[in-house]
Amino acid sequence: xxxxxxxxxxxxxxxxxxxxxxxxxxxxxxxxxxxxxxxxxxxxxxxxxxxxxxxxxxxxxxxxxxxxxxxxxxxxxxxxxxxxxxxxxxxxxxxxxxxxxxxxxxxxxxxxxxxxxxxxxxxxxxxxxxxxxxxxxxxxxxxxxxxxxxxxxxxxxxxxxxxxxxxxxxxxxxxxxxxxxxxxxxxxxxxxxxxxxxxxxxxxxxxxxxxxxxxxxxxxxxxxxxxxxxxxxxxxxxxxxxxxxxxxxxxxxxxxxxxxxxxxxxxxxxxxxxxxxxxxxxxxxxxxxxxxxxxxxxxxxxxxxxxxxxxxxxxx
Length: 316
Ligand code: MTE
Fold this sequence. Notes:
Blueprint: H1 17-30, H2 33-38, E1 52-53, H3 65-68, H4 83-87, E2 97-102, E3 108-111, H5 112-116, E4 122-129, E5 134-144, H6 145-152, E6 160-165, E7 187-191, H7 192-195, E8 201-206, E9 209-210, E10 220-222, E11 235-241, H8 248-252, E12 276-279, E13 290-292, H9 300-303
Parallel strand pairs: 1-4, 2-11, 5-12
Antiparallel strand pairs: 2-3, 4-5, 5-8, 6-7, 6-11, 8-9, 8-10, 12-13
Bound molecules: ligand MTE.
Residues 1, 72-76, 128, 130, 165, 186, 215-216, 228-229, 231-234 line the site of ligand MTE.
């Protein structure tokens, strides 16, 4: 889904983790705290999370953790699949807060701890189908987005939910370069009834641990029946609004990316077919096995009624 490409960064230009940690130690001794504060922060270690099993999980085998955490889209850290894993350690995820505003009776700015206190975490093993033609199966840990929205009491006039990722150029390299792959902040949106659907979750972990930064720590959306770009990462603001909100990919390339972006093998992307997909881990290049893409990514029995009577070609 790349629109424009930055000049390539060769792997030799990326500082290995061991080297930058060593450099921090040397500088801490020699230059003092001011210099240290300018260096990338140490990567947060993933912590184990307890979660109950969910009846919504697929029984397909999960993608290898190694693949799901090194083959990512998170353009704030660069446009190559390896960039998020190489660069996202710079993101400081604690303290973290999320502002919830707009058409709600109880607007609030919640800390991550406030958000998580009353929720029961569940493991949801979901298929994720990227618009680029590949897919993964990921054991997320999260809770229904509806649980959080109910706490702020949406008003009758609220019809859509808008989401926003943070803007922090000092920690997100692609937000400060000469070349900016997208306009920031990264924006996404759902219709309110989609957002209230029990399959839509906010994830805070995967593979039994807290989310790695490259996968959207500390809090990201997961909407399994839509193309992956709807699942916005590292959320800092959620607004309930009356009109359909702008979204990053739709604003960037409206003819290619619609607001709904439901997985649909019958509606091709203007530049490629969406009929089949490559499951990450099932061979690569010429040897990659392709499997048929399923309507609503296989979640039709749960979500098809949200769109009854709608022309899914016009509302792509
Ligand atoms: N969220 C933000 N803030 N920035 C991004 O570039 N990329 C999206 C989505 N969320 C993106 C984002 C795309 S295109 C996909 S396919 C998924 O994240 C990928 O999630 P994953 O890397 O955890 O598999």
